[in-house]
């Protein structure tokens, strides 16, 4: 495959190579590119085969750029720099009346999680940013209908036609209990401590994939509660927990919301965690718009071009 001709469609491959060369570590490069390590490794191997060159020496501590690799990096840097400059010039020419960017935030997390990210995005898009806050399944349905450009959702979800971009953000679920219960005074109890107790939980039809996922974890942890239908409104849920009708399991970010008669208790690691992913719609083999990362640096892409980047991190 050596000496294959290169085309403009190979620019992403050259960008991947440059990031790996800068990091000298596949894991760090993959995190920076918001992708997993195996496909990145395959792309670098593919580039080496295309060039007929060994670009990196692989060892236990990471990667070292070879002399051939250094020459390739020197050759591609002007192209990549020119691409960035071109995108910036195009952005400067964009009229204020340009298309609105519509982004969805899942209500699976307390919305304070997204404050800093939204603030930075509004600083860039201004009035052209529209934020929609809904449950993850509703956001996915809006993506399918073309109403959103990207969305932050909680996984798992059954939506194979949407492209996922894992984000470096995760928070555990906490037990939400009536104040005064003996369990509320325990330090990081396991889930099975709450066996037989009423648990407010969502109906399966609202999110089948996540429902089945959590039920599997419950069984694995030896947790067998009595299920009650969860109220749609968060304040109603807390009120019913305060009244002693049952307990809840909520992401830790919700613990900032204080309610008299309710306490949040950490549960051991054999319980649930709640991660967040971004989703983007894929049509006819191409993405409608690239999604953004919630870890530092924040990155938003639309139609393949970088529109915004910065060093903002979410509050938690």
H/I helix tally: 8
Gap from first CA to last CA:
46 Å
How do the SSEs run, as a string of H and E?
Answer: HHHEEHEHEHEEEHEHEEEEEE
Oligomer: single chain
Q: What's the story with the biggest beta sheet?
A: 8 strands, mixed
Task: Give an overview of the whole structure.
With 316 residues, this protein is α+β, with helices and mostly antiparallel strands. It contains eight helices and 14 strands. The strands form four sheets. Strands 3, 4, 5, 6, 9, 10, 11 and 12 form an eight-stranded mixed β-sheet that branches. The protein has a two-stranded antiparallel sheet with strand order 1-2. Helix 1 (11-23) packs across helix 3 (37-51). The protein is elongated, with a radius of gyration of 23 Å. The model is unreliable at 282-316 (pLDDT under 50).
């Amino acid at each position: 495959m050596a000496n294959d001709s290169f085309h403009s469609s190979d620019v992403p491959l050259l960008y991947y190579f440059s990031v790996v060369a800068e990091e000298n570590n596949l894991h760090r490069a993959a995190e920076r590119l918001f992708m997993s390590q195996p496909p990145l490794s395959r792309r670098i191997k593919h580039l080496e085969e295309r060039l007929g060159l060994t670009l990196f020496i692989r060892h236990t501590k990471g990667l070292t750029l070879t002399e051939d690799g250094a020459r390739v990096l020197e050759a591609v840097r002007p192209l990549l720099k020119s691409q960035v400059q071109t995108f910036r010039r195009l952005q400067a020419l964009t009229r204020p009346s340009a298309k609105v960017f519509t982004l969805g935030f899942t209500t699976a997390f307390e919305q304070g999680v997204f404050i800093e990210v939204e603030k930075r995005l509004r600083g860039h898009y201004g009035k052209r940013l529209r934020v929609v806050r809904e449950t993850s399944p509703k956001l996915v349905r809006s993506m399918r209908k073309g109403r959103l450009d990207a969305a932050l959702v909680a996984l798992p979800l059954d939506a194979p036609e949407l492209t996922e971009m894992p984000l470096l953000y995760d928070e555990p679920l906490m037990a939400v209990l009536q104040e005064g219960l003996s369990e509320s005074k325990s330090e990081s109890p396991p889930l099975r401590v709450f066996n037989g107790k009423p648990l407010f939980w969502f109906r399966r039809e609202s999110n089948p994939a996540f429902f089945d996922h959590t039920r599997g974890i419950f069984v694995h942890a030896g947790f067998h509660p009595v299920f009650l239908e969860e109220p749609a409104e968060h304040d109603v849920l807390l009120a019913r927990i305060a009244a002693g009708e049952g307990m809840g399991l909520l992401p830790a970010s919700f613990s900032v919301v204080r309610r008299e008669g309710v306490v949040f208790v950490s549960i051991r690691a054999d319980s649930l965690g709640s991660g967040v992913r971004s989703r983007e719609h894929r049509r006819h083999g191409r993405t409608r718009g690239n999604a953004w990362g919630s870890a530092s640096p924040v990155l938003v892409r639309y139609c393949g071009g970088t529109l915004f980047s910065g060093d903002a991190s979410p509050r938690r």
